[in-house]
Amino acid sequence: MMNVLIVDDEKLIVKGLKYSLEQQGYKVFAAYMGYEAMELIEKNTMDFIILDLMLPDADGMMLCKRIRADHDIPILMLTAKDGDYDKILGFEFGADDYMTKPFNTLELIARVKAIMRRAGKIGEGKVIASGSLEINWDERSAYAEGKEINLTAKEFDMLYLLASNPGRVFTREEIFRQIWKEDAFDVRTIDVHIRNLRDKVEQDAKHPRYIMTKWGVGYYFNKG
């Protein structure tokens, strides 16, 4: 699990980003002040930092420079400013990328993944391809017809479990234990997740190509 640190004093932005990144399978830390960020960096191994340019107690540029001096952690800088000078300065101080507010969360997540890939934090291994569907474990991403599918963490885990065992039928209880790491207490949630997965992955959810049902038993991934 990748550790991502968000450094921003706008709590609503932090809350929204934290939720979206956790849905992608990341462990997210939050800091609202510069000194909080440094404490978290020193106490935890961070894989990525999303850093706001303007903080109440610190200049984001200088904080970026300070982090870069001691740590090789990819940094995406956020700012309300939209000027070439600030972008150039941010890159000079060690930022890997730059986004202005307001921003599209899906685009930000895509940039995080791209930067991590370039930095060698995630690779191209553990990729499952079937038809037009591609599932990448390291990136925790899935694509259909070349377009990324917006999956929750549990939906991705369930899809990868089935796809990495093509043809094997999993009971609802088995899927629950594998994904939730505990004994099943309500297997109906599996049916809900499967239905949501089909809506996102299949071209025609009523006539699925990938996620199949074994009536009276459970679900499996079509290996054909």
From TrEMBL:
Residues that span the membrane, as ranges: none
Lineage: superkingdom: Bacteria
- Modified positions (4-aspartylphosphate) in chain numbering: 52
Q: Which residues form the Response regulatory domain?
A: 3-116
This protein's record includes keyword DNA-binding: yes
DNA-binding feature ranges: 125-223
Q: Does this entry carry the keyword Transcription regulation? A: yes
Q: Which UniProt keywords apply?
A: DNA-binding, Phosphoprotein, Transcription, Transcription regulation, Two-component regulatory system
Q: Which residues form the OmpR/PhoB-type domain?
A: 125-223
Family annotation (Pfam families): Response_reg, Trans_reg_C
Query: CDD domains attached here?
Result: trans_reg_C
Q: Which PANTHER family match?
A: PHOSPHATE REGULON TRANSCRIPTIONAL REGULATORY PROTEIN PHOB (PTHR48111:SF40), REGULATOR OF RPOS (PTHR48111)
Q: What does this protein do?
A: May play the central regulatory role in sporulation. It may be an element of the effector pathway responsible for the activation of sporulation genes in response to nutritional stress. Spo0A may act in concert with spo0H (a sigma factor) to control the expression of some genes that are critical to the sporulation process.
Q: What is this protein called?
A: Stage 0 sporulation protein A homolog
User: What is the species listed in this Swiss-Prot or TrEMBL entry?
Assistant: Lutispora saccharofermentans
